TrEMBL record, chain A:
Annotated function: The alpha subunit is responsible for the aldol cleavage of indoleglycerol phosphate to indole and glyceraldehyde 3-phosphate.
Keywords per UniProt: Amino-acid biosynthesis, Aromatic amino acid biosynthesis, Lyase, Tryptophan biosynthesis
Family per record: Belongs to the TrpA family.
Family matches, as PROSITE patterns: TRP_SYNTHASE_ALPHA
Active site (record annotation): 54, 65
Protein name: Tryptophan synthase alpha chain
From TrEMBL, chain B:
Pfam family, one: PALP
Species: Frondihabitans sucicola
Family from the record: Belongs to the TrpB family.
Name of the protein described by the UniProt record: tryptophan synthase
Keyword annotations from UniProtKB, A to Z: Amino-acid biosynthesis, Aromatic amino acid biosynthesis, Lyase, Pyridoxal phosphate, Tryptophan biosynthesis
Entry EC no(s): 4.2.1.20
Domain Tryptophan synthase beta chain-like PALP: 57-268
Pathway the protein acts in: Amino-acid biosynthesis; L-tryptophan biosynthesis; L-tryptophan from chorismate: step 5/5
Subunit structure: Tetramer of two alpha and two beta chains.
Source species, domain of life: Bacteria
C-alpha cells in the first residue's frame, strides 16, 4: 500500500479495526430508484452505522453483477441517469455525512469520460476513490496516475483464482483496501460466504495487505460477523439494493442498522 | 521485420488488452499459454488441419460471379465461399480450434454467445463432436427472430439460454456468458466468436480464421494470375473480415474494405495500415475491448476513396451490440436486400497506404457479428459504373472511374 495516510477510506477502516472489529461497507447504485432517493439512501446507510459508502455507477454491461444489481442499474439508466450526474450526487452526500464514498464503476464509462477528468471531478466533489471491477492493475497505468494526481483511492480486486504474484500486484496497486472476492462468481446474496474468502484473506496478508475487505454474497449480520473475524471489512450490496427496492428508505435503515450490528463487538 | 500480420497482441495499436474481472485472468493466462504452445505444435496443427479437411470441408471453393459482376458494373467479382463450410458459415474455423484447445486444457463444457445463431450452431456442433456439454447464450429478441437456429442448437444437444436482461440482444448474451464463465471457469471454456474480448481471444480468433484469406489469396492467384485489386468483407464483430484480410495485409497493392450493415455513422472510419516497420504494439494506452465501445457513437462505415460514402440509413443490425451508455435500442429491421457502400477505385489512382478498413477499430466497438454473411468477395476492378440504387437515385449514382459495388444480405 502506498501512503495510506491520506486515504479517508483507510482511516475509516482502521478506526473500526482499532475498536476491535472491522468496517461495514455498503453498496447502492446512484440513480436508483431516482437520483434524489439514491442520495437519501446513501445518507441513510451512513446514519445507520455503515462505515464506508460504495456508490455504484450504472452501466449497460455490468458483467460482475448479479440480477438484483443489474435490475437496479438498468432501471437507473432507463430513467435517464448520466455519468455527469454522479459528481453532484457525491457532493450532496458528502455535505450530509462524513462517511467516505468510493465509487464502484466499470472502466468504460471512466475511459469515455476521461480518466483524469473523472478523477478530478470526483475529487472536487469530495469522493474518496474508485473500485474498478473490470480494470486489472496490468491495464491501470492511466488510472493509477490520474488517481495519484487527484489523491484518490484505487481499489483493485483479488480473486480466489489469482496467483500469489497477482495478489502482490493487487496489494501494491491498491490504496484504501483490496476488494477480496469471496467466491468465483458475481454479486448477489448467498446462504454461505465461501470458505475460499478466509483462505484468500490469509494469502493477501502474506503479501502484506493492509486492508482486505470481503465482498460477494454477504447479506446477513451473522455473515458480517463471520467475515470480520478474519477480514478488515465486509461489503454488502445486493441485500441493501433489495431492501431499498422493496421497502424504501425506512426498511433500508432497519437493514443497515442490523448489518452494522454484525460489526459491533459484543 | 515486423509486419502487421505478425502482431500477436495483447495490443494492436491503441486497442487490445484485458478489461475483465480479476477472476478470469488466471483462465486467460492459462488459455494464452496453451494457445501459444498449440500455435507451434505440429501435432495440434495437424489435428486441426485434418478436421478442416474431413469435417469442415476445407478448402472452401471460390466462385466467380460474372452475371452479378456485369450487373454491378463489370469488375471481376469472386466470392470466397465460407457458406459452404459445415454448419454454414466461417464460424466453424475458430470454433474447432478453440474446442481442441479446450479439450487440451481438460475443460468439459463449452459456452458461447450468439447473435443470429451461426456461432452458436458451430459451437453446439463442436461440443457434440467432442462430447462436451454446451450452453449458448442468446438474446431473447434474437431467439425469437432466429427460432430455426435455436432449434438446430437444441437438436445438437446444446442448452440455449434466452437472455432477457438489458437490450435482450447480443451484447447482453456476451455479458451473461461472461457471468457464467466467472462462476464456472474451472470446467468451462468460453468460445468467444469474434475478434474481440480480452487477450488472447482477438489473436487466437484471427489466427483460426486466417485460413480463409490464405486459401483465397492462392486461389485467386491460380485463377487470375494476379492478386485482387480489392478485398471486401462484411463486418459484424470482425472475424470474417480479419479472416480474409489477414493474408493480404502485407500486399500494399490490395485495398481492403469492410462493410457494416445498419450504419448510423456520420463519418467513415479510415484506418491507416501501419508501415511494415512500425511496431505492432504502440506505447499508447490500450482501450477496452471487452464488449465495449471506444467511442460513444461508433462509426460504422467504410470510406470511399473519392470521399463519397454511401451510408445505409440508421437501422440496427439484428443482434448487434449497442453502444455503451445508450439506453434506447433502435428496433431491429428485417430489410432484405440493401445496397451497401460502393468503395472501390482504380488501383492506379489510389494511394495504397492511406485507406484501410475499419479493422482493428471494430474490435472495440462491436462484439460479435450477429448476421454473419456467407462470403467475402474479391474484386478485380475495371468497371465504370455502379449498380443504380434501388430507390431515388439514378443518373447521379453513376460515378466516373471504377467502382465495385456489392450487395449485402442483411
Amino acid at each position: 500500500m502506498i501512503d495510506s495516510s491520506t486515504s479517508k477510506v483507510s482511516r475509516a477502516i482502521t478506526a473500526r479495526k482499532d475498536a476491535g472489529s472491522g468496517a461495514v461497507i455498503g453498496y447502492l447504485p446512484v440513480g436508483f430508484p431516482t437520483l434524489q432517493t439514491s442520495i437519501d439512501a446513501a445518507v441513510t446507510l451512513a446514519t445507520n452505522g455503515i462505515d464506508v459508502l460504495e456508490l455504484g455507477l450504472p452501466y449497460s454491461d455490468p458483467v460482475m453483477d448479479g440480477p438484483v444489481i443489474q435490475a437496479a442499474t438498468q432501471r437507473a439508466l432507463a430513467e435517464g441517469f448520466r455519468v455527469r450526474e454522479l459528481f453532484p450526487a457525491v457532493r450532496e452526500i458528502v455535505s450530509q455525512t462524513d462517511v467516505p464514498i468510493v465509487v464502484m464503476t466499470y472502466w468504460n464509462p471512466v475511459s469515455q469520460y476521461g480518466a483524469q477528468r473523472f478523477a478530478d471531478d470526483l475529487s472536487a466533489a469530495g469522493g474518496a476513490g474508485l473500485i474498478t471491477p473490470d480494470l486489472i492493475p496490468d491495464e491501470a497505468a492511466e488510472w493509477i496516475a490520474a488517481a495519484d494526481r487527484a489523491d484518490l483511492d484505487r481499489v483493485f480486486l483479488a480473486a480466489p483464482s489469482s496467483s500469489d504474484a497477482r495478489l502482490r500486484q493487487a496489494v501494491e496497486a491498491s490504496r484504501g483496501f483490496v476488494y477480496t472476492v469471496s467466491t468465483m462468481g458475481i454479486t448477489g446474496a448467498r446462504s454461505d460466504v465461501d470458505a475460499a474468502a478466509a483462505t484468500l484473506v490469509a494469502r493477501l496478508r502474506e503479501v502484506g495487505v493492509e486492508n482486505a475487505c470481503v465482498g460477494l454474497g454477504i447479506s446477513t449480520a451473522q455473515q458480517v460477523r463471520e467475515v470480520l473475524a478474519y477480514a478488515d471489512g465486509a461489503i454488502i450490496g445486493s441485500a441493501f439494493v433489495r431492501a431499498l427496492a422493496e421497502g424504501g428508505l425506512e426498511h433500508l435503515a432497519a437493514v443497515a442498522s442490523d448489518m452494522a450490528s454484525g460489526s459491533r463487538v459484543s | 521485420m515486423t509486419t502487421l500480420r505478425d502482431a500477436v497482441g495483447p495490443y494492436f495499436g491503441e486497442f487490445g488488452g484485458r478489461f475483465v474481472p480479476e477472476s478470469l485472468v488466471a483462465a486467460l493466462d492459462e488459455l494464452d499459454e496453451a494457445y501459444r504452445a498449440a500455435a507451434v505444435d505440429p501435432e495440434f496443427q495437424a489435428e486441426l488441419a485434418a478436421l478442416h479437411k474431413t469435417y469442415t470441408g476445407r478448402p472452401s471453393i471460390i466462385t466467380e460471379v460474372p452475371r452479378f459482376a456485369e450487373h454491378a458494373g463489370g469488375a471481376r467479382i469472386i466470392l470466397k465461399r465460407e457458406d459452404l463450410n459445415h454448419t454454414g458459415s466461417h464460424k466453424i474455423n475458430n470454433v474447432l480450434g478453440q474446442a481442441l484447445l479446450a479439450r487440451k486444457l481438460g475443460k468439459t463444457r463449452l459456452i458461447a454467445e450468439t447473435g443470429a445463431g451461426q456461432h452458436g450452431v458451430a459451437t453446439a456442433t463442436a461440443a457434440a463432436l467432442f462430447g462436451m456439454e454446451c450452453v449458448v447464450y442468446m438474446g431473447e429478441v434474437d431467439t425469437e427472430r432466429q427460432a430455426l437456429n435455436v432449434a438446430r442448437m437444441r437438436l445438437l444437444g446444446a442448452e440455449v439460454i434466452p437472455v432477457a436482461t438489458g437490450s435482450r440482444t447480443l451484447k447482453d448474451a456476451i455479458n451473461d456468458a461472461l457471468r457464467d464463465w466467472v462462476s464456472s471457469v474451472e470446467t468451462t471454456h468460453y468460445v468467444l466468436g469474434t475478434v474481440a474480448g480480452p487477450h488472447p481471444f482477438p489473436t487466437m480468433v484471427r489466427d483460426f480464421h486466417k485460413i480463409i484469406g490464405e486459401e483465397a489469396r492462392q486461389q485467386v492467384l491460380d485463377l487470375t494470375g494476379a492478386l485482387p485489386d480489392i478485398v471486401t468483407a462484411c463486418i459484424g464483430g470482425g472475424s470474417n473480415a480479419i479472416g480474409i484480410f489477414d493474408a493480404f495485409l502485407d500486399d500494399a497493392s490490395v485495398e481492403l474494405y469492410g462493410f457494416e450493415a445498419g450504419a448510423m455513422a456520420s463519418s467513415p472510419v479510415d484506418t491507416p495500415r501501419p508501415s511494415p516497420s512500425a511496431a505492432p504494439a504502440s506505447c499508447r494506452a490500450p482501450s477496452p475491448t471487452s464488449c465495449k465501445t471506444k467511442t460513444a457513437r461508433p462509426s460504422r462505415a467504410t470510406r470511399s476513396p473519392r470521399g463519397s460514402t454511401i451510408l445505409p440509413s440508421g437501422r440496427s443490425t439484428p443482434g448487434s451490440p449497442r453502444s455503451a451508455g445508450s439506453t434506447t435500442s433502435p428496433s431491429p429491421t428485417k430489410t432484405p436486400w440493401r445496397r451497401s457502400g460502393c468503395s472501390a477505385a482504380r488501383r492506379a489512382s489510389s494511394r495504397p497506404s492511406s485507406r484501410r478498413t475499419p479493422w482493428p477499430a471494430r474490435s472495440a466497438s462491436a462484439a460479435t457479428g450477429a448476421q454473419e454473411r456467407p462470403s467475402s468477395s474479391l474484386c478485380r476492378a475495371g468497371a465504370t459504373k455502379t449498380w443504380p440504387a434501388p430507390a431515388a437515385t439514378s443518373e447521379s449514382s453513376t460515378r466516373r472511374g471504377s467502382s465495385c459495388d456489392r450487395l449485402q444480405y442483411q
